[in-house]
Design goal:
The chain has 648 residues and is α/β, with parallel strands linked by helices. Helices cover 62% and strands 15% of the residues.
């Protein structure tokens, strides 16, 4: 991973800064700045761009530029262009939304390659393949912190980092995958198979019990079918015996019984009608009186009609008489009338006429109502005659039935016929019950067969002893493979241990040039034997061959930095990964001699370096570094912010 350029927006002191590292005049690139100017922030920005740090919320709250915060510019981003082999990549990590109430930020990561574009988790996975985050401390160095590699409890961490640098990740991943396979699949599978073996036995036992039940049910059905056949034979014989009786007479008796029942019903009906006829008899008795009353009404109507006619006649005579009194005769026209008899006419005649008219109307209405009364259709006598006829017929049929019964010797309650009929009915009921029992058992057999099928399917789902043997073999194979991989790792690390030690001593010889260091120490080594757990704790070796007691006699900051630096660059020779090394606080703890020696060592490296230094650190690194500088930037203050100005 060779860095080509870095774009920073609103990250710590940088509002909008650009760092171009494509200048190939030299392999060492320098960013020079005062203490607190922003070198460490640049170092942090590159690491955040690659790996994301502690999460968007924390990163945003800790790294958001103060002036951008005041101006409400919410976008914070780092864009890194780099080259890996022959492929060019552009990595953009940005946060452009921030929930101020909840303190929550939303981060997006994009990796653009020559042919593909990746986002978020997929982009991060690609970065991990190019340069694992676990190795970032070997390529993004901090002179203030690298001495942690020589601390007492760093042995196992150093060992893991050696394995990672040597690209043991494949072996480690294979070992982890096998261990996960054991824990997550094979061992649970074995336990499940053992559990299923017990369940399988229980299922087999349950299937056997179902089959025994089916066998018993089928046996009972066969017995019942035999019983049905026997009862059918008996039923047929009984019916034949019943038919041997006088079938015609019995049929006639039955017909007579039915006829008697029908006549009895008719008798009941006629009795009911006779009762109703007696209720209507009073209309028949009064009918003559109604006729007489009708005639009397006719007579009264005629009398009233005559009275009404007399009144009308007298009224006409009175009117004519009045006209004659006034002049000529209304009949002959003679006006010489000497004498005209006086006719009586009273005013109450009009009232009488009205009363008579109303009376006539009333009598006529009464006569109409009497005319509507009709005599009953059937007299009780007719019903009585019909009743006597039905009773006679009943007696005749009963006499005939009794004669037939006498011929058959009577039909007592315990007669042969009743016995046969009861036997037939009982046999029919028994046969029906047996068939119902058979049908019920057939349903039970069908259900049990379905249960057997389910259990057989369930049994097939349960692993067999052969499956147990197979998974046991796989577990043994996986455990063997894990042990072999572990052995390979250990042997490979032990094999590289001496080479790494030799290489870091070569680096130590180049960078530890001060009189104090050269006269006191001859090199570095790992503590203990290669087989010990703490065999990767770094120690200084004194000129007399004894290792420095770094627990009771803590090394100085300069000794720690030179030791860690030697280990890092010695190990990098065998690293299966490569990257531009970004080094912050390069020589802050070193004297001038060791700083110049370190500068000469940097100038001898083939891999590019990005050094974040103060002016004094750059000066102390010496002329050899000055000659290899490619891109050179200075950090200049801009109020509370910083700007990157290109010097070369």
């Amino acid at each position: 991973m060779k860095l080509q350029s870095v774009e920073i927006a609103n990250f710590r002191p940088y509002r909008d800064s650009h760092l171009d590292l494509t200048d190939r005049d030299g392999s060492i690139h320098v960013v020079e700045g005062d203490q607190g100017g922003g070198k460490t922030s640049l170092h942090t920005a590159i690491q955040w761009g690659l790996y994301g740090g502690d999460g968007p919320g924390t990163n945003y709250s800790e790294h958001w530029n103060e002036r951008a915060k005041q101006d409400r510019e919410e976008k914070m981003s780092v864009e890194i262009k780099f080259k890996e082999g022959e492929r060019n990549y552009t990595l953009i990590r940005e946060i452009d939304r921030f929930n101020h109430t909840q303190g929550r930020a939303y981060e997006e990561t994009t990796l653009i390659g020559n042919t593909n574009t990746y986002s978020d988790e997929e982009a991060q996975n690609q970065i991990e393949e190019i340069l694992p985050e676990q190795l970032k401390d070997f390529f993004f160095l901090d002179g203030e912190r690298i001495q942690r590699l020589i601390e007492e409890d760093a042995g196992q961490q150093v060992k893991r980092e050696i394995e990672t640098v040597l690209k043991h990740r494949t072996i480690i991943n294979a070992q982890n995958d096998l261990e996960d396979l054991l824990e997550d699949r094979l061992i649970p599978r074995r336990d499940k198979i053992e559990e299923e073996a017990s369940e399988r036995d229980e299922i087999i036992q349950e299937i056997s019990e179902y089959r025994d039940d089916i066998k018993d049910l089928k046996k009972q059905n066969e017995e019942d079918r035999d019983n049905i056949q026997k009862k059918n034979d008996i039923l047929e014989e009984t019916r034949e015996e019943l038919e041997e009786l006088n079938e015609e007479k019995i049929e006639e008796i039955n017909d007579l019984e039915e006829a008697i029942q029908d006549l009895q019903q008719d008798k009941v009906r006629i009795l009911s009608e006779l009762k109703e006829s007696w209720k209507e008899l009073r209309y028949a008795i009064l009918f003559d009186d109604v006729d007489d009353l009708n005639q009397e009404l006719e007579r009264q109507i005629e009398e009233y009609d005559e009275q009404l006619s007399e009144i009308e006649r007298n009224q006409i005579i009175y009117e004519l008489t009045e006209e004659a009194r006034e002049g000529e005769c209304p009949i002959c026209g003679n006006d010489d009338i000497e004498y005209l008899k006086q006719h009586d006419h009273e005013d109450h005649d009009e009232d009488l006429k009205k009363q008579i008219t109303e009376k006539i109307v009333e009598l006529r209405e009464m006569r109409g109502r009497l005319d509507s009364v009709e005599p009953p259709e059937d007299a009780p006598g007719d019903k009585q005659v019909r009743l006597e006829e039905i009773t006679s017929k009943i007696e005749e049929k009963q006499e005939r039935r009794d004669e037939l019964l006498d011929e058959l010797g009577g039909v007592p309650d315990e007669s042969e016929r009743d016995t046969l009929e009861r036997n037939i009915k009982q046999l029919e009921n028994d046969i029906r019950d047996l068939r119902d029992d058979i049908e019920g058992r057939e349903e039970k057999i069908q259900k049990k067969q379905q249960e057997i099928k389910k259990l057989e399917n369930k049994r097939e789902e349960r692993s067999s002893n052969r499956d147990l043997e197979e998974v046991t073999d796989k577990i043994e194979a996986a455990e063997t493979a894990i042990e072999k991989l572990k052995t390979i790792r250990e042997e490979h690390v032990r094999e590289k241990r001496k080479k790494i030690r030799d290489e870091m001593n070569e680096v130590f010889d180049q960078v530890a040039q001060s009189e104090f260091m050269s006269e006191r120490y001859k090199g570095l080594d790992f503590r203990g034997s290669p087989d010990e757990d703490d065999s990767y704790v770094l120690q200084l070796v004194e000129v007399d061959g004894e290792t420095k007691d770094m627990v009771n006699h803590q090394p100085s900051a300069g000794e720690s930095q030179l030791t860690a630096l030697s280990f890092i660059f010695g190990l990098n020779k065998y690293a299966r990964y490569s990257s531009t090394i970004v080094f912050d606080t390069v020589a802050g703890r070193l004297d001038l001699t060791n700083s110049e020696a370190q500068g000469e060592f940097f100038a001898s490296l083939d891999e590019p370096l990005l050094l974040l230094v103060t002016d004094s650190e750059l000066r102390d690194l010496g002329e050899s570094v000055q000659q290899e500088i490619g891109a050179h930037y200075e950090i200049k203050p801009d109020g509370k912010d910083s700007e990157l100005n290109k010097v070369k």
